[in-house]
Design a protein that fits this description.
Layout: H1 3-13, H2 17-20, E1 33-39, E2 44-51, E3 58-65, H3 73-87, E4 92-101, H4 115-118, E5 123-127, H5 139-146, H6 154-168, H7 171-188, H8 194-201, H9 209-217, H10 222-232, H11 236-251, H12 261-268, H13 272-281, H14 288-296
Parallel strand pairs: 3-4, 4-5
Antiparallel strand pairs: 1-2, 2-3
Helix pairs in contact: 1-7, 5-6, 6-7, 7-8, 10-11, 10-13, 11-13
Length: 302
C-alpha cells in the first residue's frame, strides 16, 4: 500500500490538513496550495510543498510522508529543501518542514548530524500512532490516522468518521470526506474497487462525485459497453484505443496531451480479462496516479 500517495491525494483535496497537525499555522492557511516542484542543477523532485499565495511573500512548508524506513531521508529532505529555498529566496520569508511517520520505529536511525534542525521549531516530526484515539481527533487528522490502523478495524472506523462528517460538516465538506474515505479504503485494501469501498462505507454509488461526473458526461454506460463489445467481437485494438481516449479525457481534464508512454505501453500488454476490468473501473479514477496504482496492483505474470 503506497500510503504516501494517499496523503498527497488528501493534501491536494484539502491543503489545510497539514496545518491541523501543527501547533501554529499561518494566518492565510486557507490560501495555501499543495504542489510538487522541481529544482534544477542538479535536478531534484520535491513531492510535497505547500506554497503561500503568489501575491505576497510567506512561509514555504516542505512535507515528507514516510511509511518505510529510509536511512538517508534527512539528507535528501534538507538537501532538496535548502536548495529550493535558495533558488526561490525572493518568494519566501521563511521555511518549515513536516515529516509524517506512522510511528517512531520508521524514522531514520542516525539523526545525529541533524540534531540541531530536528530539535528546532522549524522541523515538525509527526507520529500518527501517538496522536490519540481516532474518534477524538479532528476529522482531517483522523483521516490520516486511519491509514495506520489494522485492516480488521478499518471499516468500522471509516464508517464512524463518515457518520461524524455528516453530523458535523456541511454537505459539501461531507461529500469531500466521502471521497477521501473511499480513496483510503481503495489504497488500503488493494483488491477493492471503488464500488466495493463505497459498499463498505454503507453509501450508494450515486452519492459519490465520480458517479455524478460520469452521469453528467453521459459516458458511464457507453464506455464500458463500447469497450467490452469491441473485445467480445474480437476488435481488441479498437477496445484498447477507446480506453486510451477515455483515460486521456478523464485524467488529463481535456487538456492537450497524452498519457505517459510507460502507461500506454503497459495497457497495450494487458490481457483481454484485464482490459474488461479496466473498462469497468476507469470511471472511478480521479488522477493518473489512480491508474498507476491500479496497474501496479495487477497480479504479477498476467
Amino acid at each position: 500500500m503506497r500510503r504516501d500517495s494517499i496523503f498527497y491525494k488528501l493534501f491536494q483535496e484539502a491543503p489545510t490538513l497539514l496545518f491541523e497537525l501543527l501547533e501554529e499555522s499561518p494566518s492565510n492557511a486557507e490560501q495555501y496550495r499543495f504542489d510538487s516542484v522541481a529544482v534544477k542543477e542538479p535536478k531534484f523532485e520535491i513531492d510535497g510543498v505547500f506554497l503561500p499565495p503568489d501575491a505576497e511573500p510567506g512561509v514555504v512548508y516542505f512535507c515528507e510522508v514516510q511509511f518505510q524506513r529510509d536511512e538517508l531521508l534527512y539528507e535528501r529532505l534538507f538537501g532538496e529543501s535548502f536548495l529550493y529555498f535558495y533558488r526561490n529566496r525572493q518568494r519566501f520569508t521563511d521555511w518549515e518542514a513536516v515529516v509524517i511517520y506512522p510511528s517512531r520505529s520508521t524514522e531514520q536511525s542516525d539523526t545525529h548530524p541533524y540534531r540541531s534542525l530536528l530539535n528546532c521549531n522549524q522541523v515538525h516530526r509527526i507520529y500518527l500512532d501517538e496522536l490519540g484515539n481516532i474518534e477524538q481527533l479532528p476529522l482531517g487528522v483522523a483521516l490520516m490516522a486511519l491509514t495506520t490502523i489494522d485492516e480488521a478495524s478499518t471499516p468500522e472506523a471509516a464508517r464512524l468518521l463518515l457518520a461524524r462528517s455528516q453530523r458535523e460538516e456541511s454537505e459539501a465538506a461531507s461529500r469531500a470526506i466521502i471521497e477521501m474515505l473511499t480513496t483510503i479504503l481503495v489504497y488500503k485494501f488493494t483488491n477493492l474497487n471503488r464500488r466495493e469501498a463505497e459498499a463498505m462505507l454503507g453509501i450508494t454509488l450515486e452519492e459519490t462525485r465520480f458517479y455524478r461526473e460520469a452521469k453528467e458526461e453521459g459516458i458511464e454506460q457507453g464506455i464500458e459497453q463500447g469497450i467490452v463489445q469491441g473485445i467480445v467481437q474480437g476488435r481488441e485494438q479498437e477496445g484498447r484505443a477507446l480506453i486510451l481516449r477515455q483515460l486521456n479525457r478523464r485524467l488529463l481534464n481535456r487538456r492537450v496531451g497524452t498519457l505517459p508512454e510507460s502507461i500506454t505501453t503497459r495497457i497495450a500488454e494487458l490481457s483481454i480479462e484485464q482490459i474488461e476490468t479496466l473498462a469497468e473501473e476507469l470511471l472511478d479514477f480521479q488522477s493518473i496516479e489512480d491508474l498507476e496504482v491500479w496497474l501496479e496492483n495487477l497480479p504479477q505474470g498476467d
